[in-house]
Design brief:
alpha/beta, Ribosomal Protein L15, Chain: K, domain 2, Four Helix Bundle (Hemerythrin (Met), subunit A), 4-stranded mixed sheet, 10 strands
């Protein structure tokens, strides 16, 4: 099982030799590709061969690259690795509207519960108010409980005046963390033969990853919990240390239906369960994460 997430912030050359990723820097490092879940190339001074790109994609490794602001701007996704993509796509396209609404209800309920737990772990107020909203979510979230919860949650977590649209360090850290989760989800969605543009709730014609934006929702509080505890308004920039630690959240321990996984594997677990929802036309099969205190996942 792949368990390594590699972060490259210094100049390097990447290649493949004997199923090993070779990282050439001042010293050379090799990592078995079978052990790698994702690679984040944060530096702009990195070269990589085409066979390396192909081999990583064939082995379902999510490869991130960053822009001039050192924010993730692209992810290399596997294509055509699923043995029954047409069948999976058929189930996804024909998923009943009622089932979609029930899936969205389940997603939003768990997202709000996780937000409530995030407030609790930070010693904040309004935990019961959020839990009450979670209990009131209807199919398709027709009464907009998600947006009501967000108005309470972000102001309580980050303070009065906080706005997700403002350009400051906390939002920068949140966006960086979200981009990592979204990229891993996009990789998993493609690996399972699903079409990432076909969402449950999101349906923007200009968005190629509507489904990733659906499934990411209950995972966002993991990023928000880390940012609330580690990033402050007086910080000037999202530092390299912050980025490394946000990337390392993929190793965080996450409970999913009484089983513990790394966050990266929990994302895969949710994606896999969504394929079961499509195949059986049942929302109850969707497996979602619960928020817990941040601690590294230990493999037995």
């Amino acid at each position: 099982m792949a368990f390594r997430n590699i972060y490259i912030e210094n100049p390097a050359k990447l290649s493949i030799k004997n199923r090993q990723l070779v990282i050439q820097q001042e010293e050379n490092y090799t990592v078995p590709v079978d052990d790698i879940q994702s690679v984040m190339i944060e530096t702009r001074q990195c070269s990589i061969t085409v066979p390396t790109l192909s081999f990583l994609a064939q082995n379902q490794v999510a490869l991130f690259t960053c822009d001039e602001q050192h924010l993730p701007c692209s992810v290399l996704l596997p294509l055509g690795n699923h043995s029954r993509k047409l069948q999976t796509l058929y189930y996804q396209v024909h998923l009943a509207k009622r089932t979609k609404n029930r899936i969205w209800k389940k997603i939003i309920q768990q997202k709000i519960r996780n937000q409530a737990h995030c407030l609790s772990l930070n010693g904040k107020k309004h935990v019961e108010k959020l839990l009450d909203l979670a209990a009131k979510v209807e199919e398709g979230d027709r009464t907009f409980c998600e947006s009501q919860a967000a108005q309470i949650y972000f102001l309580e977590l980050f303070g009065e005046g906080f706005n997700r649209r403002h350009d400051h360090v906390q939002n920068g850290a949140l966006n960086y963390g979200y981009s990592i989760l979204r990229g891993v989800l996009a990789r998993d969605i493609c690996a399972y033969g699903l079409e990432p543009a076909f969402g449950v709730f999101h349906h923007n014609e200009l968005n190629s990853f509507n489904l990733a934006d659906d499934l990411i929702e209950p995972f966002r509080p993991y990023v928000e919990l880390w940012v609330a505890k580690n990033v402050y308004p007086e910080d000037l920039i999202v530092t390299s240390k912050m980025k490394r630690e946000l990337f390392s959240l993929l190793f965080t321990r996450v409970p999913v239906e009484d089983e513990y996984h790394s966050l990266a594997n929990a994302l895969k677990k949710t994606t896999s369960s969504f394929t079961s929802c499509c195949k059986n036309n049942r929302a109850t099969l969707l497996k979602l994460p619960e928020l817990m205190i941040l601690k590294p996942h230990e493999y037995e």
